Amino acid sequence: MTSDSQDIESATTAMSPVITDAPDSKTRRYDRQLRLWAASGQSALESSRILVLSGTATSTSILKNLVLPGIGHFTILDDAKVSNEDAGNNFFLEGPESIGKPRASEAVRLLRELNESVDGAAELSDISSAIAKGASYFADYSLVIAHNIPYSQLNQLSEILWSDVTLPHLIIVRSAGFLAEFSIQFHEHTIIESHPEMPPSLRLDKPFPALLEHARSLDFENMDVTDHGHIPYAVILVRAMDDWKAKNGGKAPTTTAERDAFKKSIYAMKKKSDEENFDEAVTQFRRAFVETKVPMDVADLFQDQGLTSLTPQSSPFFHLLAALREFCSRPPHTLPLSAALPDMKADTKNYVHLQKLYKTQSEKEKDEFKEILAQSGIGVAGVEMGMVDDFVKNCHGLRILRGKRWGALDANPTALASALLSSPREAATHLALSSVSVLLEQTPQKAITTEAVTAHVLNLLPKGTELPSEVEEALGEVHVPSHSHLDESADLTVSVRSPTADLPNTAAFLGGIVAQEAIKMITKQYVPVNGICAIDLIGCTTGIVRV
Amino acid sequence: MDANGVSASNDWQGRYNHIDQILEQPGPRTDESFGAGDTVKDFLRNQCKVLVIGAGGLGCEILANLALTGFKEIHVIDMDTIDISNLNRQFLFRQKDVGKPKATVAAEFIMKRVPGVTVTPYFGKIQDKDEDYYMQFHLVICGLDSVEARRWINATLINMVDSDSPESLKPLIDGGTEGFRGQARVILPTVTACIECTLNMHTKPTAFPICTIANTPRLPEHCIEWASVLEWPRVHGDKKMDNDDPEHIGWLYSTALKRAKEFNIDGVTWSLTQGVVKNIIPAIASTNAVIAAACCNEAFKIATSSAAYLDNYFMYMGNDSIYTLTFQPERREDCPVCGNNSLPIEISKDMTVEQLIETLGERPDVQAKKPSLATATSSIYLQSPKQLEEATRPNLEKKVSDFVEESGQIIVTSVSLPFSLQLIVHFV
Ligand SMILES: [Zn+2]
């Protein structure tokens, strides 16, 4: 190539990508979130349809954080008219101007202003009529969220949505004053892109042939000093280990003394004291001998019931997982190699070369994986190639969550008692909210005494369980209005409809945390809560009660 | 009150029924000083004055929560204008507001949506205001993305504490988020750990060594840094680069892409270019909502004593399930702001002034950008004005031990330090 032609090329590339690659206005709007869940997560969000039961301050707070990032559609199902106190604690009502109007319509109108591309609808009927329509009513949605709905309705709703795995997941949210909890009802949730903190293994203890060959081909001794200071630590470690094995009957160092000696041998390879690449190799020296295995979390998945009962109808995830299990059963008994190479002290030439070696090997192993998948002969047609790439790329972070039906914990006195022992604060919060919600329905017109709630809590637990002080503290915080408060109230019906405090800050906190979990469920990225997340905004603590 | 129950302060009957459930009776963990009923309601709704610093991702949420909670007198400071990339979370702003000052638009929105609340905006820097201004507030809540601004308000509020006047102690509630993570904390100046005490908990943006950028690029980021740090000034001279100008970003992108091609490096994209150049931190509505709610909940509890408040640091991680930790970082005795005002530093006898300057920039508990150094009697190295910089430049290569003896003092000043830091030098 002449210098002229290069100039022409650079002259044209200087401007053209600027025009074609500049982001459109949608990408600019969503830039800060696309950096977390990318276009794939965004498109999942945009095709989601969410049903929210009740138009409380908490419900609209949750929706706000789903409308902003751009879900496809939401419906608020609520037959209430805006009360004086609704107008005081809900940001998506217009104060006194909204009083008396349908709460769902007002909220939908104001929520839609947040994002023009989101569709919203108000359904002004009560929850029991929706429940009466049965499963088909809910089948249209990808997720249902219910805040502070009556206990018996929640029971019916969760039963309907549990009846078929294809029905939407349900997020149950409860709050009273400074206390709150939520849980997600799902049968199974599989995650490919969990975004784990731990990077995939470089497999330096089991170098692939091309890497070993490359490490052996370098003449460390007679190399130019500058080049010597630019060999990536991965190559140094592979070479150092190869040399060590040659001198030690093919064995890697095992005892502490041997490992120290190995570390010293890396130091000894230095030509100058300030070679940072060798310093890195010394820091990372364990990678040369710590055995790369299939990570425990992934190995556990190979025992999952989804594999033992694999059929052509199983979801693509399990066919891919079966192929992965087969891949890992073959030498070198590791996950397919990742092409992602972390930065290392090196010059461009050495680093890019190493990157190429990893990329080539990674492609080769992915082809092997695809071959296994093809040979398995089941359900491959249903697996898109893009999904295979994502699966292999993220296989070190695969997750399967298996859930229980809502209410499973309350039906299990032993589990409740052990939760009270292991996480008293969280279990107490759950017991308080759960009992108050049961009692509120049983005695809607009356104030509920602490004695009555305590008796209900004790009823859920094995006989003779001693209540820790956290339970008393939680019960005292749910702030069920006292009888005198109701008497003083000029508008009795208002107090009865919302007999627990939906505080703006608690609502906002739940609004964030529940929307976040909804986003994880919809995008199938990151790892959602499995269990009951209990929140105490007095001490400002949260915790998960395992179900 | 008139016949419809609407009082002059716009409080319609039942407006605060939810909150009043909390304010009318103590809970098991409520302090004895709690003045249940009218006393506490009057303070919250008619007397308490709150300052919100930042009207961005956290600030919008904070303003809405405070207004609904019943705070009626709110001030907000922000120096930024609205950008399209704010709209995925800063929910008081609309497309039509792009380009307008955040503080003003946010204040107008809150006052329209929540009747009876006064929000006074200031479109400018926190440093424009003096101690008299800050003294008028009962509480300060920060929702900032800049460590520098946090350090400044922290030092200012701590300086204001006068032990003879309890009013001078202004609780500082600070929130911060990054992707699915965040933190909220309560700082009682001179009582609990301050921003400076825990500075090493703030992550510093990744810096790439200049020699890597210039000579041995390996990552796409290295090519982008090359374009912005080295090529831009070489090609454009004194013309300042504007991060928000798409033409400038476009130039950096194509320049970085060309270099990446030359070195066989993959991965330079427009989005990455923008991310590196602007040091973009991912931000979503949900995390901001959680942290802002935690901050405002603390403001409410402190203003009303209706429940114990956070002691004193709440850490939130939402990427893998939900993990939070509430803990008590301790005050640092040698905290340069709330402690005894001097920092012992151990250095080699051979360390040069230039190396010390580099160390001060890198140390997570100091983070001094371009610091100037002096002893009590003479200058060691001054960054400005130009003449003094030139005059002291030869000192950069000299040893620190040429200027101070063992246990001697060096005074460090820097634009990123809201105070002058005294180093006590120990040679090892
Ligand atoms: Zn301090």
TrEMBL record, chain A:
Q: Where is this region: Disordered?
A: 1-25
GO terms (BP aspect): protein neddylation
**The THIF-type NAD/FAD binding fold domain covers which part of the protein?**
30-145
Respond yes or no to whether keyword Mitochondrion is given for this record: no
The domain of life for this entry's organism is: Eukaryota
Q: Which Pfam families match?
A: ThiF
Q: Say yes or no: keyword Cell inner membrane present.
A: no
- UniProt keyword terms in alphabetical order: Ubl conjugation pathway
Ranges of compositional bias, category Polar residues: 1-15
Q: Which InterPro entries match?
A: APP-BP1, ThiF/MoeB/HesA, ThiF_NAD_FAD-bd, Ubiquitin-activating_enz
Q: What does this protein do?
A: Regulatory subunit of the dimeric UBA3-ULA1 E1 enzyme.
Q: What is this protein called?
A: NEDD8-activating enzyme E1 regulatory subunit
From TrEMBL, chain B:
Q: What is the lineage of its organism?
A: Eukaryota, Fungi, Dikarya, Basidiomycota, Agaricomycotina
The catalytic activity, as recorded, is: ATP + [NEDD8 protein] + [E1 NEDD8-activating enzyme]-L-cysteine = AMP + diphosphate + [E1 NEDD8-activating enzyme]-S-[NEDD8 protein]-yl-L-cysteine
Top-level division of the source organism's lineage: Eukaryota
Say if the entry is tagged with keyword Nucleus: no
Q: Keywords for this entry?
A: ATP-binding, Ligase, Nucleotide-binding, Ubl conjugation pathway
What's this chain's function?
A: Catalytic subunit of the dimeric E1 enzyme, which activates NEDD8.
Enzymatic class = ligase
Q: What is its EC number?
A: 6.2.1.64
Q: What organism is recorded for this protein?
A: Schizopora paradoxa
What is the name of this protein?
Answer: NEDD8-activating enzyme E1 catalytic subunit
Task: Show where the E2 binding domain sits.
Answer: 345-428
Q: Which Gene3D superfamilies match?
A: NAD(P)-binding Rossmann-like Domain, Ubiquitin activating enzymes (Uba3). Chain: B, domain 2, Ubiquitin-like 2 activating enzyme e1b. Chain: B, domain 3
InterPro entries for this protein: E2-binding (IPR014929), ThiF/MoeB/HesA (IPR045886), ThiF_NAD_FAD-bd (IPR000594), Ub_act_enz_dom_a_sf (IPR023318), Uba3_N (IPR030468), Ubiquitin-activating_enz (IPR035985), UBQ-activ_enz_E1_Cys_AS (IPR033127)
Q: Which family does it belong to?
A: Belongs to the ubiquitin-activating E1 family. UBA3 subfamily.
Q: One GO cellular component from the entry?
A: nucleus
- Please give the pathway this protein is involved in: Protein modification; protein neddylation
